[in-house]
Amino acid sequence: MAQYLLIESRDPYEYGDPEQFADLAVDLAGAGNDVTFFLIQNGVLVTRKGAKAGTLQKLAGAGNVKVLVDEFSLRERGIAKDKLAAGVTSSNVDQLVDLLASDGCKAVWH
Amino acid sequence: MAKYLSIVERAYHGTLEEQDDTILWVNHMFKNAGADVSLLLRSNAVNYAVRGQDASGLTFGKAALSAPPTLDHDVEQLVKAGVAVFAVSEDLADRGIEQGELVSGVKTVGRREVAKLFDQHDQVWHW
Amino acid sequence: MASGKTLTISLMDPPYESETTTTVLRIVDAAVRKGHNVNVFAYEGAVALPMKTQAAHPNPVKGTTAEEGHHPTTSGFISALFEAAKANDAKLDWVNCGLCVDERGANDWVEGVRRGGPGDFVKMAQESTNTLVIGTR
User: Fold this and answer.
1) What gap in Å lies between CA B104 and CA B80, rounded to an integer?
2) A41 lies in which domain range?
3) Contact status of A41 with chain C (Cβ, < 8 Å)
4) In this complex, is the C-beta atom of A31 within 8 Å of any C-beta atom belonging to chain B?
5) Could you give the ipTM of this predicted complex?
6) Can you give the CATH number for the domain in which A62 is found?
7) pLDDT tens sequence across A59-76
């Protein structure tokens, strides 16, 4: 079992690929890996309550993918805490660096 | 030795001026430097494996692009250099590309098998 | 205090075109504050990030002078990161890919930046705790 840190910087409104990156997270988790999905930059646009994107539901469906979102990216886009969808934990670049620096972590940026 | 999986997704950005795809190129350099690197073509980059690409003939006033990129040839050279090159089969199908159109040596892998490729490598570099 | 860990990051975006550049600078900042060594391999357009000749400009829409506007430069931020690394007993190694520099004429960098190539990146990746590759779109 490996530890994966998948960092999604893009949104599914401008690009078609983020949907597949989320599918990959689900597949990796399904294979028994420890998966953290970190949303940053425009990737956080799916975390607004009511956002029309299936990303969070897909990740929640895996049952064991931890979804973190960069607090600065949220604030930069005016997404206040009470507007955040369920299933997402606020985080920051300090925690991102801690994850990157942990031994055996496979980090993938999208 | 660590095994690296390089993923190429973006395609035909600056390839004319650069005379190659900068990610295919740098991975060939990594291989030459001794790295055990495999390549996964996904999204639009699957088109790089299509035989018969021709970017010749461009001129700008009297200046000609006299050495255009030959990306299909570059993919073949990577295979010859011992780099395992994969292309996502659904991404090929989405673009109407048939297996017979690909340069030789490129292996196809299903979208849901990509996670297995990740597990088989120590690091994944998504360009 | 030095942590004993090293992170390698590869980036490609030129200045002022992508939020990814800012994110990388944030990551480097956080990492050196924690005492981690950081290697940066600047590839393609990213080799312009540390160019010394970048200059602030006035903003006619906002009516501010260059001084009033505090327009940042990426090279200014990179110089500050070299200082932050030193202050935290960490090492920042910024390598500009030489061929990318040549085709862009992107010479004359802030102090600390050095010329290198893909072989440097392979060595960095082999010797680091982790490597994060960031492409461009």
Assistant:
1) 10
2) 3-109
3) yes
4) yes
5) 0.96
6) 3.40.1260.10
7) 999 989 999 999 999 999
